[in-house]
């Protein structure tokens, strides 16, 4: 089939969703396509969830500019979209005496980048803030403006807001070719052809590949995997702030950090890999995390570990973001090489790219936008009175589906009915937290599947865990035994 639009955005991660939302303020026909089956299937679903203060990036770089500009937008943005965000602060610790000079460099760098409130703490001051820290540290840099956010929840909210204001989304569309054509661009996927006047490349780990198809000036990307340990909420409160070790050439190093939902995160590793889709975890990588994280938190225990995961960084050889028009290809724009601090930068990147595209196409602002309806408070955060009131208005609040995270049937149905709603078990999980707890969906998964089937009007045997090839059921028991007699 052929589809056409004024603007085609490739990639529905945090960058593509931010650009789409900002462009939805203008009168234009906008389409977002992604090879994944949902929003945030790339790096946006697997990162540290930290809104970096901005002391790490080299002054004058795009990373430094967008990090600080983006981080400043977070509090109001998350408030407007009802996305959990907490300005928890961060420490960078000096494990060796020699690290103290790195802390001073980071302090200077941060001040040059415009980061407020940075201060070097003595060992005693740092331990008073975080008593579980290694008592042998030599000092720490305090960054009070560092924050915590749920990256995919922010992307979902941005996508919903954009969709409410006319942006269309299509999934399971892997772009295999893009070229300039009459009046704009021709983009092909496995089954379809797309025509557009403006093309925006927000393709994360594939952004260099797409860039190279559009212009002669070739980019080289290194895919750098980061693995994690995630501990459940019984580890909540062990650390209140994100704790980094001193950064190296390969990145910000292994951190120990609370998440905005009260879990504790350990990681990531930094391994250069060949396949950008290889999000496996390995014993060697996980062992490395524990060894390094114990230098920050000597009493580390993995008893509360509930899952491990990994994400892939899109590192450009030039070690900076590439944001703006694609050189030598009028009408093409890009956000390429968006590795860390890409999450922190996304709100500012979205604004800048949308302004450039609006100017290029001479777009008029939309006269009226549909305001984003703030989602109700999650049931598990409600007071007893609020719960009673919610159940009175909608009895589906009275059925708890996920016991670990206390997620109700009403919340799951609402997640499926959102403008860009959940279509899979993992889609429900990331929108509601059903399945995010200690049992990792062991109890609630069949019940979530049944609600999905009912809401989507399909059979249980059509429900997927996430993308293609992840059907939950293989067929009726009789047929399954015939196919596999030993089962
Ligand atoms: C381990 C790790 C830790 C990180 N920690 C932080 C942090 O704490 N703070 C921070 O600010 N940043 C962090 N980052 C960086 C941040 O996660 C990324 O910069 C950000 O998520 C990038 O968003 P994106 O939308 O550009 O890319 P992605 O989220 O990767 O989205 C790109 C999208 O494009 C789609 N796509 C790709 N190729 C094609 C194609 N050919 N056809 C169709 N669709 C395609 C993908 O499916 C994907 O959905 C971290 C990254 C990693 C990997």
Question: What does the model show?
Answer:
- The protein has about 475 residues and is of the alpha+beta class.
- The chain folds into 3 domains: about 1-45 and about 150-220 and about 320-360, FAD/NAD(P)-binding domain (3-Layer(bba) Sandwich), CATH 3.50.50; about 85-145 and about 220-315, 2-Layer Sandwich (D-Amino Acid Oxidase, Chain A, domain 2); about 380-480, BFD-like [2Fe-2S]-binding domain (Arc Repressor Mutant, subunit A, Orthogonal Bundle), CATH 1.10.10.
- Helix content is about 30%, strand content about 20%.
- It has 13 helices and 22 strands.
- The protein has helices at about 15-25, 60-80, 100-115, 125-130, 150-165, 205-215, 285-295, 340-360, 385-395, 410-415, 425-430, 445-455, 475-485; strands spanning about 1-10, 30-35, 50, 85, 90-95, 120, 140-145, 145-150, 170, 175-180, 185-190, 195-200, 220-230, 240-245, 255-260, 265, 270-275, 305-315, 320-325, 330-335, 400, 405-410.
- Strands 1, 2, 9, 10, 11, 12, 19 and 20 form an 8-stranded mixed sheet that branches. Strands 13, 15, 16, 17 and 18 form a 5-stranded antiparallel sheet that branches.
- A hairpin with a 3-residue loop joins β11 (about 185-190) and β12.
- α1 runs parallel beside α5 and α1 (about 15-25) packs parallel to α8.
- It is globular, with a radius of gyration of 23 Å.
- The two termini are about 40 Å apart.
Q: Calculate the terminal CA-CA distance, rounded to whole Å.
A: 41 Å
- CATH architecture classification name of the largest domain: 3-Layer(bba) Sandwich
What gross morphology would you assign? globular
As a whole number of angstroms, the C-alpha radius of gyration is 23 Å
What is the number of E strands? 22
Annotated CATH homologous superfamily of the largest domain: FAD/NAD(P)-binding domain
**Ligands bound to this protein structure:** flavin-adenine dinucleotide
| CATH fold-level assignment of the largest domain | FAD/NAD(P)-binding domain
Largest beta-sheet characterization: 8 strands, mixed
Content-based structural category: alpha+beta
- Portion of residues in beta strands equals 15-25%
Number of helices in the DSSP assignment: 13
**How many individual domains?**
3
Fraction of helical residues: 25-40%
Just give the CATH class of the largest domain: Alpha Beta
Mean pLDDT: 96
- Poorly predicted regions are none
């Amino acid at each position: 089939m052929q589809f056409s639009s004024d603007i085609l955005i490739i990639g529905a991660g945090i960058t593509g969703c931010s650009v789409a939302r900002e462009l939805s303020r203008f009168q234009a026909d906008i389409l977002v396509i992604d090879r994944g089956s949902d929003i945030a299937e790339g790096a946006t679903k697997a990162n540290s969830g930290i809104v970096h203060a901005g002391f790490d990036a080299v002054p004058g770089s795009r990373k430094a500019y967008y990090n600080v500009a983006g981080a400043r937008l977070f509090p109001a943005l998350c408030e407007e979209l009802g996305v959990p965000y907490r300005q928890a602060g961060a420490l960078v610790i000096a494990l060796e005496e020699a690290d103290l000079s790195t802390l001073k460099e980071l302090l200077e760098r941060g001040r040059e980048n415009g980061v407020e409130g940075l201060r070097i703490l003595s060992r005693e001051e740092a331990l008073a803030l975080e008593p579980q820290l290694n008592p042998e540290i030599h000092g720490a840099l305090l960054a009070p403006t560092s924050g915590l956010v749920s990256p995919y929840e922010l992307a979902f909210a941005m996508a919903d807001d954009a969709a409410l204001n006319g942006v269309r989304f299509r999934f399971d569309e892997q772009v295999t070719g893009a070229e300039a054509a009459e009046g704009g661009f021709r983009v092909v996927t496995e089954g379809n052809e797309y025509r557009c006047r403006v093309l925006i490349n927000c393709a994360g780990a594939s952004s260099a590949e797409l860039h190279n198809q559009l212009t002669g000036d070739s980019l080289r990307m290194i895919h750098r995997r980061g693995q994690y340990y995630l501990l459940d909420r019984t580890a909540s409160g062990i650390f209140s702030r994100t704790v980094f070790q001193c950064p190296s050439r390969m990145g910000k190093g292994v951190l120990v950090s609370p998440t905005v939902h009260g879990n504790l995160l350990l990681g990531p590793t930094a391994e250069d890999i060949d396949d950008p889709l290889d999000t496996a975890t390995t014993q060697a990588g996980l062992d490395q995390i524990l060894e390094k994280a114990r230098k920050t938190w000597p009493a580390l225990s993995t008893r509360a570990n509930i899952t491990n995961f990994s994400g892939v960084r899109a590192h450009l050889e030039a070690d900076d973001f590439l944001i703006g028009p694609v050189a030598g290809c009028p009408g093409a724009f890009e956000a390429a090489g968006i590795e860390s601090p890409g999450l922190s930068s996304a709100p500012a990147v979205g604004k800048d790219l949308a302004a450039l595209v609006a100017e290029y196409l001479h777009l008029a602002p939309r006269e009226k936008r549909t305001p984003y309806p703030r989602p109700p408070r999650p049931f598990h955060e409600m007071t007893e009175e609020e719960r009673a009131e919610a159940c009175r208005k909608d009895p589906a609040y009275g059925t708890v589906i996920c016991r670990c995270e206390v997620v109700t049937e009403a919340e799951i149905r609402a997640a499926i009915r959102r403008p860009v709603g959940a279509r899979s078990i993992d889609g429900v999980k990331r929108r509601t937290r059903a399945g995010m707890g200690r049992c990792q969906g062991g109890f609630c998964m069949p019940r979530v599947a049944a609600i999905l089937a009912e809401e989507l009007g399909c059979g249980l045997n059509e429900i997927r865990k996430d993308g293609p090839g992840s059907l939950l059921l293989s067929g009726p028991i009789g047929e399954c035994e015939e196919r596999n007699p030993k089962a």
